[in-house]
């Protein structure tokens, strides 16, 4: 059996009585029961029997349909025929959930759609977006956060490591002197001296490069692919809660705003630095208990981290 080419809900290859979500790469563990209703068998009826079963049929009785005495075109109450499709509607495909007349036809296999929701249908187990796409697990998000942090740290050090080393060079010289000194208080002064070196122009230049690298990294990947490299490695992605697809530019920038603000406040001394650290920790832990598995930056941008990849919507 060949795998589908796009994310969505498909017949489970291992269990024909249910549907399984395909994330675009692999079959996930999220399933949903099929909601199709069995189609009653059609009993072949001869024209004579069909006509005789009509109300009022008999010798000399007028048959329904006028010049169509056996009701082949429109059917009649006595014929044991399947329900007629309204004109203009596509024919019902056997094995598909019953079409609700008056509703737009449902396109099976589209990302985020679950056939048969409603009175007879059921959502897949576990948290999901309003259109049924399963949400990413907390530890998947943690793993992606670590991978993205390592990648951005390498890029930042390549571009701004020179300024960081210049900022720390006086402290490194003091550390070397403390190692060669016999004065036991030499190391006690190092922790106090480090905060002084973290306020120079070279250090702030390094922080500025770090912020710009993080902004470009996250915004570029989320608007182009809907996922950063760390999230791609864990097979998860970011989308608006109510709409699939990669994030629009304003939404991606808004999602990164909290990270940007805490990074800037973290360079300031005193209570502001401690407050920035506290907010950042709460932001990272928030999906662990939030019913919608959103971090604070997801709340700000109305986004969700979901299973699978995002497909760019065609205009």
Task: Please tell me about this protein's structure.
- There is one protein chain.
- Helices cover 40% and strands 8% of the residues.
- It has 315 residues and is mainly α.
- A three-stranded antiparallel beta sheet has the order 1-2-3, with no helix packed on it. Strands 4-5 form a two-stranded antiparallel sheet.
- About 15% of the residues have low confidence.
Radius of gyration: 32 Å
Q: What would you call the shape?
A: elongated
Q: What is the strand arrangement across the widest sheet?
A: 1-2-3
Give unreliable regions as ranges: 52-66, 74-87, 105-123
Helix share, percent:
40-55%
Which properties best describe this structure?
three-stranded antiparallel beta sheet, two-stranded antiparallel sheet, 8% strand, 40% helix, mainly alpha, 315 residues
Short structural description:
The protein has 315 residues and is mainly alpha-helical.
What layout of secondary structure does this protein have?
Elements: E1 8-11, E2 18-22, E3 27-33, H1 47-52, H2 138-180, H3 188-197, H4 201-224, H5 229-233, E4 236-240, H6 249-265, H7 271-285, H8 296-301, E5 303-307
Helix pairs in contact: 2-3, 2-4, 4-6, 6-7
């Amino acid at each position: 059996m060949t795998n589908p080419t796009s994310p969505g809900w498909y017949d489970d290859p291992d269990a024909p009585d249910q549907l399984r979500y395909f994330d675009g790469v692999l079959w996930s563990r999220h399933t949903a029961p099929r909601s199709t209703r069995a189609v009653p068998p059609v009993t072949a009826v001869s024209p004579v029997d069909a006509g005789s079963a009509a109300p009022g049929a008999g010798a000399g009785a007028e048959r329904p349909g006028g010049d169509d005495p056996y009701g082949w075109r429109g059917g009649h109450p006595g014929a044991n025929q399947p329900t007629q499709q309204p004109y203009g509607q596509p024919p019902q495909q056997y094995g598909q959930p019953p079409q609700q007349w008056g509703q737009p036809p449902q396109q099976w296999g589209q990302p985020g759609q679950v056939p048969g929701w409603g009175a007879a249908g059921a959502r897949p187990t576990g948290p999901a977006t309003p259109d049924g796409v399963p949400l990413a697990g907390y530890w998947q998000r943690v793993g992606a956060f670590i991978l993205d942090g390592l990648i951005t740290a390498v890029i930042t050090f390549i571009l701004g490591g020179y300024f960081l080393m210049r900022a720390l060079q006086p402290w490194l010289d003091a550390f070397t002197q403390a190692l060669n000194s016999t004065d036991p208080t030499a190391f006690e002064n190092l922790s106090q001296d480090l905060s002084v070196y973290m306020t120079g122009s070279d250090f702030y230049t390094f922080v500025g490069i770090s912020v710009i690298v993080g902004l470009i990294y996250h915004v570029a990947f989320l608007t182009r692919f809907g996922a950063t490299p760390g999230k791609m490695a864990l097979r998860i992605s970011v989308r608006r809660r109510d709409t699939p697809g990669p994030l629009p530019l304003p939404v991606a920038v808004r999602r990164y705003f909290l990270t940007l603000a805490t990074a800037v406040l973290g360079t300031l001394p005193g209570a502001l630095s401690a407050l920035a650290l506290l907010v950042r920790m709460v932001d990272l832990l928030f999906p662990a208990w939030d019913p919608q598995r959103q971090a604070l930056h997801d709340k700000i941008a109305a986004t969700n981290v979901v299973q699978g990849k995002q497909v760019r919507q065609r205009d």
